[in-house]
Amino acid sequence: MAAVRVMRGHFDVERVRADFPVLARQVNGRPLAYLDNAASAQQPAAVIDAVAGYARAHHANVHRGVHTLSQEATALYEAAREKARRFINAASTTEIIFLRGTTEAVNLVAQAHGRPRLKPGDEILVSWLEHHSNIVPWQMLCGQTGAVLRVVPIDRRGVVDFDRYLAMLGPRTRIVALAHVSNALGTVLPIRAFLDAARERGIATLVDGAQAVPHLAVDVQALGCDFYAFSGHKMYGPTGIGVLYGRERTLEAMTPWQGGGDMILSVSFDGTTYNHLPHRFEAGTPNIAGAIGLGAAIDYLKAIGMERIGHHEQELLAYATARLADIPGLAFVGTAPEKSSLMSFTIEGVHPHDLGTVLDSEGVAVRTGHHCAMPVMEYFGVPATTRASFGLYNTRAEIDALREALLHAIRMLR
Ligand code: 7TS
After folding, report:
1. Could you confirm whether 372 is annotated as catalytic?
2. Distance 131 CA to ligand 1 centre (A)
3. Domains in the chain and their CATH numbers?
4. Are 207 and 360 in contact (CB under 8 A)?
């Protein structure tokens, strides 16, 4: 499988770009400017090769066979778990559960942790800027248990109100579930402070890290959360794979969510003994290739270094903010002082969907819509925004292309 070269010295974006085959292609006769990384990021050759290399030479089911291929597949799968553990500095691989992604992780916590524990009138706290996948599973849980979902407000910048949060933490609060970084606004929450306040009160905490892990170094032990969830495809890995970190003592106290193969030690019609962590929460044949691809993505990110990546992206954000600020009628949605490298905006007199279509004709890929964060759109009184989100391979030239395409679209659509 492809070796990853460690990057030394300054961040060389052209060298990074050469690692991503898709970036060489044209879209509608223009060089692709891929600015939809918050929805899903592209994969470097090291990830593509790891997945293909596994299929070519090692594929078999894991944790089952004594034959060579099964043992190799198991070793590769478990090595990926160790990479994920180190990536977020979990204490043990027993705390790393592979599943489909952030969405499945939140649902698992709601059903396996929340459902047996919550009583009518208990409270779950989320913020106003959450992605639907950190809202709807809790609403479903409320429907099942009689618990109540409470929402911490944001302000016009898109900052979650910390004082209101403190005031809302009450004797009935059982779970706090917050995004580390907002996908619709880019807000980076001072998550440690939010978590500290919950932990002091004995409240279970979940962090939706889907938009954080591609951009900043995460240390779950330093954060002190019970759960931390993220998706492979937003961090240059494959789709259909993600991680739920769960603190061991919290996971130990939970019964499985789904039953099936691999999550048991023994089964008879008199009863079943569940497997040890983390396998207890991985019923059925897992996404082995996806986990291996995610491991390769982690190797890739580490070889460049999260600090370097964050620095490059913050520089792009500052450049883009300045370049777009004087576009007539453009208004940024989400202006928090701490932001990740994305910008949501509206343009007066132009519908985002029309805008997205014209930008695509210019080779510029952005997302338009509600970004699966409809409460955010409701708060700002807009049906949709246009969102450009930057990753480690984006360049100033692509931001210039975005600006030109926006000016072109405005001339066409207004
Ligand atoms: N949480 C956040 C903060 C997200 O941004 C997303 C996906 C999810 C959870 C769900 O992740 P999944 O991998 O389980 O689907 N966000 C987006 C987005 O912003 N545009 O498309 C998907």
Report:
1. yes
2. 7
3. 49-302 (3.40.640.10), 305-413 (3.90.1150.10)
4. no
